[in-house]
Amino acid sequence: MKKIQIKQRPLLTRPEDFQGMLPFIAQILARRGVTSPQELDLKLKHLLKPELKGLQTAIELMDRAIDHEQQIVIVGDYDADGATSTALMLLALRDMGAKVDYVVPDRFKYGYGLTPKIADLVQEKYQPKLMITVDNGISSHAGVEQAQQHGMQVIITDHHLTTKPTPNAEAVVNPNQLGCDFPSKSLAGVGVAFYVLANLASLRRQHGKTSSQLTQYLDLVALGTYADVASLDYNNRILVDAGVQRMRQQQCRIGILALLDIAGRDPAQLQAQDLGFVLGPRINAAGRMETMDIGIECLLAQDTQQAYHLAQQLHQLNQERRQVESQIKQDALQTLEQIRIDQTDLPAALVMFEPHWHQGVIGIVAGRLKEQFHRPSIIFAADEDGIHLKGSARSIDGIHIRDAIERVAERHPHLVRYFGGHAAAAGLTIEKQYFTEFQQVFTALIANMDAQLFEEVLWTDGELPVDAFHLQTLATLEQLGPWGQKFPLPTFEGTFAILDYRWLKERHLKLRLGLENGKSLDAIAFNAIDRFEFDPMHMQVRLVYRLEKNDFNGSTNLQLHIMHLEQ
User: Fold this and answer.
1) How far, in Å, CA of 437 to CA of 439, rounded?
2) What is the DSSP letter of 207?
3) What is the value of pTM for the model shown?
4) Can you tell me whether residue 92 is helix, strand or coil?
5) Which residue, 77, 142, 213, 273, is the most exposed by fewest CB within 10 angstroms?
6) Where are the domains of the chain?
7) Can you list the alpha helix ranges (DSSP code H) found in 164-303?
8) Burial of 226 (0-12, 13-18, 19+ CB in 10 A)
């Protein structure tokens, strides 16, 4: 089993600033950088002002296109952020009277972002006067140029980082472009689209034109933001919370309700995490396995029957995605077994390829391997051209995966054809003939990094006071959410007496734990047989855990969800 260091999250702000709160709650907030109780007020009026570079030009162009009944085309991206951004643009612009359609091309055929091929496709299909990208386009110089040659004006709305100058579009709205002073750099693509549309709606309202009430679409904003694993800074927490509230009240898209129903989830009990674990994967499955149109049409659906039909398709695609992913992961694990005798022989980076692996899920598999072995992972699949391999990379804290790939490309230009991404995730294309050489060079580069980076650290919020083990604590923590990226769900550590144990389905470990005050409670470790070494003869156990509800036989009790176990 891998060695894990357990450390407490550092305090980033002062717990003393949260007067009237229980000390352990104040510490949780201080460990996440919350500066004042004001940041717990998630009303929409606290959203950042729309001080985005390029915004004014963008909304004037869109306003004019609507007034002149010009054809507008949205060019989306193939993931949940892209799908929600596309749906949001379509719905809001149609409310305002726009003549608007969308294109989300097959990424395996047309590549990523706005490529010249996509510009040609849009021209062939719609001959629009205005093209608007959502969740892509910031690096698409050639695509923008091609669209303009076809006579289109181009507005880019995006949130991705780039080291290149901005494309020469008519307007570019991206908080991460050079010269943009917008304080939050964590907006997802759908967040950028929301800001653009809200300000367009306001402009048109001021001039007595047909407009749209954007708050009705905050369910889409929340879903896209959370599913894209955007950092939950104060601004994003406001957006996500507002969207989750709408879903709980069933004031959301019919397609979202259909997806929740098929997944067996009650909207009234929805937590922000469900956007990432229930809704996001089902929308993403369309782009991974087939075409994102199914995901977008589900979000656009106006009647229940259509919504259920599309939601069912997405559910099935997600099941198929899970099967394919599981098979690739099994193959990868078997390959690993062949190259190592035990954990100590694990390479510094996991770089793998098999000809039959599916392009749509390699990113997920890379993420799973990274989590399991705490190593940067790159999984390749064959490109349709038979010459190239497409790779998806995921990395651990402290190793910037895009920069590492760039270093390989600089030192060995023949090894990397294309690459892009950021610290935690990246994509790249290489020639198949150079796979082994790339694998060796990349692994050697990573192996030269600080050895401490390869020791996994599990961060906790310390020990929970013994009088805090009750459902009210869980309710309080839920109210302080939404929890997610860079605002992680509270995780605690502690040593407990084992009163009883049993194995469920010979995989999951159920424990009955004794507390210092004489009370007891249940804890569960899923798939413990593969993850932990448990000795029932040891009467104590050290745990890292989260709090959760356990509904059983009509009663609800507090339960510990075990993240890590050691004796």
Assistant:
1) 5
2) T
3) 0.93
4) helix
5) 213
6) 52-316, 328-454, 463-566
7) 189-206, 218-227, 234-248, 254-262, 272-274, 280-289, 293-300
8) buried
Quick: pLDDT tens for 534-555.
998 999 999 999 999 998 888 9
Question: How many Å apart are CA 110 and CA 504, to the nearest integer?
Answer: 47
Element at 187 (helix H, strand E): none
The backbone torsions φ and ψ at residue 137, rounded to the nearest 5 degrees and listed phi first, read 115, -15
Contact 277, 484 (CB under 8 A): no
For residues 348 and 447, the answer to whether their CB atoms sit within 8 Å is yes
Give the pLDDT confidence of 399-455 residue by residue, as tens digits: 999 999 999 999 999 999 988 877 888 889 999 999 999 999 999 999 999 988 998
**Minimal CA–CA distance to 239: which of 195, 280, 177?**
195
| Rounded Cα gap, residues 88 and 97, in angstroms | 14
Assign domain 52-316 to its CATH architecture: Alpha-Beta Complex (3.90)
CATH number of 463-566: 2.40.50.460
Angstrom distance (rounded) from CA 298 to CA 306: 8
Query: Which three-class secondary structure state does DSSP give residue 383?
Result: coil
CA–CA separation, 146 and 149 (whole Å) = 5
Q: Class for domain 328-454, per CATH?
A: alpha beta
DSSP notation for 409-444: HHH-GGG-SEEEE-SSEEEEEEEGGGHHHHHHHHHH
